[in-house]
Design a protein that fits this description.
The complex is a heterotrimer of chains A (212), B (262) and C (281). Chain A is built from eight helices and no strands. In chain A, helix 1 packs antiparallel against helix 2, helix 2 packs across helix 4 and helix 6 runs antiparallel to helix 8. Chain A is mainly alpha-helical. Chain B has 262 residues and is an alpha/beta fold. Chain B has one domain: P-loop containing nucleotide triphosphate hydrolases (Rossmann fold, 3-Layer(aba) Sandwich). Helices cover 39% and strands 24% of the residues of chain B. In chain B, helix 6 links the parallel strand 7 and strand 8. In chain B, 44% of the residues are buried. In chain C, the strands form three sheets. In chain C, strands 1, 4, 5, 6, 7 and 13 form a six-stranded mixed beta sheet that branches. Chain C has a five-stranded mixed beta sheet with strand order 10-9-11-8-12, with helices on both faces. Chain C is globular, with a radius of gyration of 19 Å. Helix content of chain C is 41%, strand content 21%. Chain C has 281 residues and is of the alpha/beta class. Classes of the chains: A mainly alpha (212), B alpha/beta (262), C alpha/beta (281). Chains A and C meet through helix 3 and helix 7 of A and helix 1 and helix 8 of C.
């Protein structure tokens, strides 16, 4: 019984991890674009981006999932997106906004003197970014990113509101068969995944510890 | 012909006039000290020379070439500014070393990046890098830091960091090396080692502009001194004369106040 | 105007779903929810819904895991009284039945946005669904019953005796409506099974679930042998819900009458032990 439950939950975990990995893959670069928009010299662009970030960060992810999945059909009679696609889209938008704030914080925490030192040494903007500030930004954003990654793993549980069968949905389905423990057993899977993430981030922090 | 000619530079931030009608010349191999209280505009002047600020009026000429003319936008193109600022080197008050690079890498980085843009770089890669490294090590040795080449900035004292920063600025062979209060961020016991290095640079006839609060040092090391107050040059002359026999009342007051505080 | 109504309804529905998902409990939201869903689906099916389903070749059945109406056999195949009849109805239409487990809170939104084509899952006919969807003629009798631990059943035999108990109930369900009418507060859960789990774990004293489900899931020889059901709060009927204005509703009613006359309905009902609840046609 333990084996069959484990196999079923692993199937759900597959969906959970797919959502996790694809969200990272697309939200990490999108977040950087949003961060650059939020720091742009074009005032209207900056306002627009800040507004979007404010709305996305200021509303529950669950509402965003519901709106993205049901909204087009309810408002415009459009066909629905695939469930997983809608879930992924909500997560990408939501997490890109959170990531953008982390990037922005990291970029803005680099002392002005680092840019100026690069400039007076005749470096181009891109040389300064890639050779001077990038690794410093990365060092600063690794700890907050670690927190976001772990939150993301747990947030994937929300997609069951639109019937994406992730691990908790699978666990809950046993309740109907009179089995309560599989639901609680899902926690073990989250712990393992987040344990691996924690180790990875600890390793990354250590790797970057050679400078201050 | 002077190495540097500064003509009628003006700079304001909003309504505040930070620099007004600043003009002076600097001859090759000479050291110029700029003194004055905080807020007198000395640092802004250095930043204008290094293109970190754009003057609102005036011209800057190096070796007779007009590097900057506020009235001529063609002198302010970003791509060319990069080349032009290589005439100057700047040593910051707070060092601004790159923390992720060792002392040697800090000294070599800019030179390597410039070398990579040369057409013959690919063919002579190894050779060029070896040259750059040899020169970097030699510079560190001149700074008394030969044994610190592979240390990261956070493993060095403030005085050592500032000497690495000087080596880094020298690596690009600037026509004019600028110092922005190079010892102000240092503990008093560490200023000596940095001043000693600058003094030896002066002895080797390095063309320098030094913004400093160290009056004795300015008197002994600089050839010329400019005293600035509230954005204007109040007095300008041979170093010893300005410190020991100032002509202007404001210079006398400043020096008296300085003598009292130290 | 239509768009505006829909926008308002989306906001209301989302708010409702969230308020339930957050903690439930407040019974006042139940009334507004039916109004919201009603306008949401007011104009869903424009042309023939039947040709829409036949064109795409599948009838998407929105359901939950709800034995004995819909559940999986050992091979993972959906079976049950509702599931088997849904397959038969799909065949009648000349399409494939596709079962989709949905979040029951969102069933009317699923229907309206064409996430599913029919809700067929032991669904009690309530005001909420008749306002929000086109509901078939009833096909099964049902009631809401109070479930308590078997050793305490003797103390709770009428509605008056229930007032001191803490209750769990599926939010927005017929059972919740009954408790609202009695003025009994409760904890709202996502499914009836969750509500049962509350009682089994001792988190709540009692829950209210469908008679049909209680018959199949609690008592000796089931997953919850220590529970039993006592008071029946009401009588009600199961129906199948289609999109507002859909021609599938009539098709269903015709299909059901024929299947009943042929004996298929009773035969299937007997397989799953619900033959006594089936309404005579």
């Amino acid at each position: 019984m333990l084996l069959s439950v484990t196999l079923t939950l692993l199937e759900g975990l597959g969906t959970t991890l797919q959502l996790f990995a694809l969200t990272l893959l697309l939200a990490l670069p999108l977040g950087l674009v949003i961060a650059l928009g939020a720091m742009s010299r074009l005032t209207p662009l900056r306002w627009f981006v800040s507004m979007v970030v404010w709305v996305v960060r200021g509303t529950p992810l669950m509402i965003q999932i519901l709106i993205i999945f049901y909204g087009p059909g309810l408002l415009f009679d459009l066909p629905l997106l695939p469930r997983f696609g809608a879930a992924l889209l909500s997560f990408i938008i939501n997490y890109a906004c959170y990531f953008s704030e982390i990037y922005r914080g990291g970029i803005q925490s680099i002392p002005k003197g680092q840019y100026e030192a690069g400039e007076v040494l005749g470096m181009t903007r891109s040389q300064i970014f890639f050779k001077v500030t990038l690794i410093q930004v990365i060092k600063r954003i690794v700890p907050p990113m670690g927190n976001e990654f772990i939150t993301l793993v747990k947030d994937t549980a929300l997609v069951r509101v639109i019937s994406v069968y992730e691990i908790i949905w699978m666990g809950e389905s046993y309740i109907k068969k009179g089995m309560i423990w599989p639901l609680f057993y899902t926690a073990v899977f989250y712990l393992v995944v987040n344990g691996i993430l924690t180790l990875l981030f600890r390793w990354a922090e250590k790797k970057l510890d050679y400078f201050r | 012909m002077p190495v540097l000619e500064v003509k009628n530079i003006e700079k304001h931030f909003g309504a505040t006039h930070v620099l007004e009608d600043i003009s002076f010349n600097l001859e090759k191999g000479q050291a110029l000290a700029i003194i004055g209280s905080s807020g007198s505009g000395k640092t802004t002047l250095l930043r204008c020379l290094n293109f970190l600020e754009t003057p609102d009026r005036g011209q800057i000429l190096v070796n007779g070439e007009t590097l900057f003319d506020a009235a001529d936008p063609s002198t302010q193109r970003e791509a060319e500014i990069r080349r032009k600022r290589l005439h100057f080197g700047l040593v910051f008050q707070s060092f601004n070393l790159f923390p992720q690079y060792t002392a040697l890498q800090n000294v070599m980085l800019a030179k390597q990046l410039l070398a990579q843009e040369q057409p013959e770089y690919k063919a002579r890669k190894k050779e060029i890098n070896a040259e750059i490294e040899a020169e970097g090590r030699e510079l560190l040795q001149r700074m008394g830091l030969a044994d610190r080449a592979n240390h990261y900035p956070h493993q060095l004292s403030g005085g050592q960091q500032q000497r690495v920063a000087i080596a880094r600025a020298l690596a690009l062979h600037p026509d004019i090396l600028c110092f922005d209060e190079p010892t102000s961020a240092l503990d008093p016991e560490l200023t000596g080692e940095v001043l000693k290095v600058i003094r030896s640079l002066a002895e080797q006839k390095t063309t320098m502009i030094i913004v400093t609060h160290e009056m004795a040092f300015a008197r002994d090391v600089a050839d010329q001194i400019i005293f600035m107050d509230q954005g204007v040059i109040v007095e300008q002359g041979p170093a010893r004369e300005v410190i020991e026999r100032p002509k202007q009342e404001r210079t006398r007051q400043f020096l008296a106040r300085y003598a009292q505080e130290h | 105007m239509r768009k505006l109504k829909k926008a308002v309804s989306l906001i209301l529905t989302v708010a409702m779903t969230l308020s339930f998902a957050a903690c439930g409990g407040s019974s006042s939201t139940v009334a507004s929810s039916s109004a919201a869903s009603a306008s949401a689906s007011a104009s869903a099916a424009a042309d023939s819904d039947m040709s829409y389903v036949q064109d795409k070749g599948t009838l998407v059945v929105g359901m939950t895991d709800f034995a004995p109406m819909d559940y999986r056999d050992e091979n993972g195949e959906w079976i049950g009284f509702d599931a088997d009849m849904a397959k038969a109805f799909a065949e009648y239409l000349g399409v494939e039945a596709e079962f989709l487990e949905i979040n029951w809170d969102n069933k009317l939104m699923e229907l309206d946005t064409k996430g599913v084509d029919v809700i067929w899952n032991g669904m009690t006919i309530t005001d909420e669904v008749t306002n929000g969807a086109s509901v078939s003629e009833p096909y099964c009798n049902n009631g809401q019953v109070v479930v308590v631990p078997a050793d305490k059943a003797a103390d709770y035999t009428d509605t008056e005796s229930l007032s001191g108990l803490t209750f769990a109930v599926e939010n927005g369900s017929a059972g919740a409506e009954q408790l609202d009418e009695l003025g009994i507060p409760y904890v709202a859960k996502t499914t009836q099974a969750d509500a049962l789990m509350e009682v089994a774990s001792g988190a709540s004293d009692a829950c209210v679930i469908d008679l049909l489900m209680a018959g199949a899931m609690i008592g000796e020889g089931t997953s919850y042998p220590d529970l039993t059901y006592t008071v029946q709060l009401n009588s009600e009927e199961y129906g199948v819900a289609f999109r507002k204005g859909s021609d599938l509703t009539d098709a269903f009613n015709t299909f059901w009458k024929e299947a009943y006359d042929e004996g298929t309905v009773m035969e299937t009902a007997t397989t799953y032990g619900v033959q006594e609840s089936v309404i005579e046609k």
